[in-house]
Write a structure and sequence with these properties.
The complex is a heterodimer. By secondary structure, chain A is mainly beta. In chain A, 0% of the residues lie in helices and 55% in strands. Helix content of chain B is 0%, strand content 49%. The chains are: A mainly beta, B mainly beta.
Amino acid sequence: QKEVEQDPGPLSVPEGAIVSLNCTYSNSAFQYFMWYRQYSRKGPELLMYTYSSGNKEDGRFTAQVDKSSKYISLFIRDSQPSDSATYLCAMSFNAGKSTFGDGTTLTVKP
Amino acid sequence: DTGVSQNPRHKITKRGQNVTFRCDPISEHNRLYWYRQTLGQGPEFLTYFQNEAQLEKSRLLSDRFSAERPKGSFSTLEIQRTEQGDSAMYLCASSLDIGVQPQHFGDGTRLSIL
């Protein structure tokens, strides 16, 4: 079993919809949680970075961390066609490696 | 452009050849990471440097793989005697060395083994 499991998708929504992307993890030592967006043939682009439990909002994006349930989410409000990409969750407990989920591919249809 | 730079963007080579990739991190970042990503998977950690010191290596990093960061700036990743299974995207990331910082990625080098 992988340390980080991500809803595989793919996910297809109409423009303007609220999108929910989710990951679960098994290692309770994870303290830092990230969401990346990756377009085809490009590297992951950092979207959100949170420490421990709670919510963090940045424009149309909200990241939630529930350490008691070992569950993290990314919400995208008013989704746009330009949000179409693969979304990767990642987490770490020290300054070394990050452990990634396998990504959820999102398509936002105009 | 002040982001992480990787070269070449794409490398095609025959099985058994050696290949070397280069990564130039964001200038003020002292930490540098290498990951490998295959289609449909998330990035998998390979190794990590703090300045010129290689601090952590994954079991994925077989003895055919070697990474260096001689002056604590750019890094190279070499694969010797390439195999079909080495075909992947090789990603480099960098971060600040204050506590735990998020990693910023380059656009990778795509390796194709013929």
